[in-house]
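in:
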């Protein structure tokens, strides 16, 4: 009887232990599923917010094109709008579970924001909105203020950035030109003959900028928005992320204008289309241009 009673006790204990293990295992599995579901929901919300941002920037480019009369500037604005729309299409087609692609498109959104900010500053500084008369003039000024307000609000709400330098102290690149040369240093007539790209520009005079040694980072983006890079390329800090640069060059700035020339030796296949260059100094986008090969 004693042995039988002990056996029953042992069996009861084992049964309880098995139940506890099953309960713990079930709870762990349910938690993992819930964590995965929560992560997918987070990415879905992030994707939706980014879609709204891209749509907002595309609309703002439409508004800017309506108030600009300069054909060259309107063409640049149209190119940027098409780029925003293309990125939006990529975002809408990406799967919610593709975290890497979502992060890439989030970084692209930062560049879109910086380009928009520079266009607004350029338009305002040129005083293009002061040429209209009467009610039209007041309406165009109001549209410009609304664009500036939208960009500022998005920057504060989405990135919470602290501006470390004022607009007056930021450098600016002008007279940006691109030459596609063959192996003899002459202008290449066909894209397959291009052996070197030569980028020339000026760092404008700015006595408000702190003097000293500085580094210019140049990003060369192919028509598919990928960045040309080689063994000498790397990354640099921009806002709260790291961007890849194609070429960099150090220079000394003392407040006066500086002539800059940067070279890219072509060792890869270049396909036809619109290429883009962005120039950064001191963590700021100071100039940009497009060229066709």
């Amino acid at each position: 009887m004693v042995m039988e009673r002990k056996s029953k006790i042992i069996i009861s204990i084992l049964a309880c232990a098995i139940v506890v293990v099953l309960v713990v295992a079930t709870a762990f599995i349910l938690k993992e599923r819930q964590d995965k579901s929560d992560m997918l929901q987070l990415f879905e919300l992030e994707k939706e917010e980014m879609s709204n941002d891209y749509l907002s920037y595309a609309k703002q480019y439409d508004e800017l094109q309506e108030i600009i009369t300069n054909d060259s500037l309107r063409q640049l604005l149209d190119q940027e709008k098409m780029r925003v729309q293309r990125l939006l299409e990529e975002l809408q087609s990406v799967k919610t579970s593709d975290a890497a692609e979502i992060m890439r498109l989030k970084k692209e959104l930062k560049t879109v924001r910086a380009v928009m900010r520079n266009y607004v500053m350029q338009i305002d500084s040129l005083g293009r909105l002061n040429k209209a008369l009467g009610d039209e003039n007041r309406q165009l000024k109001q549209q410009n203020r609304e664009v500036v307000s939208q960009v500022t609000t998005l920057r504060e709400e989405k990135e919470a950035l602290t501006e470390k330098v004022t607009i007056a102290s930021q450098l600016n690149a002008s007279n940006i030109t691109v030459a596609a040369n063959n192996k003899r240093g002459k202008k290449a007539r066909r894209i397959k003959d291009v052996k070197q790209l030569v980028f020339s520009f000026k760092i404008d005079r700015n006595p408000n900028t702190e003097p000293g040694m500085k580094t210019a980072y140049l990003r060369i983006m192919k028509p598919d928005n990928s960045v040309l890079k080689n063994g000498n390329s790397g990354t640099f800090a921009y806002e709260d992320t790291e961007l890849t640069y194609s070429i960099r060059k150090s220079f000394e700035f003392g407040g006066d204008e500086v002539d800059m020339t940067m070279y890219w030796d072509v060792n890869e296949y270049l396909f036809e289309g619109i290429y883009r260059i962005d120039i950064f100094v001191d963590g700021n986008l100071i100039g940009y241009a497009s060229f066709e090969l």
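note: The first strand starts at residue 173 and ends at 181.
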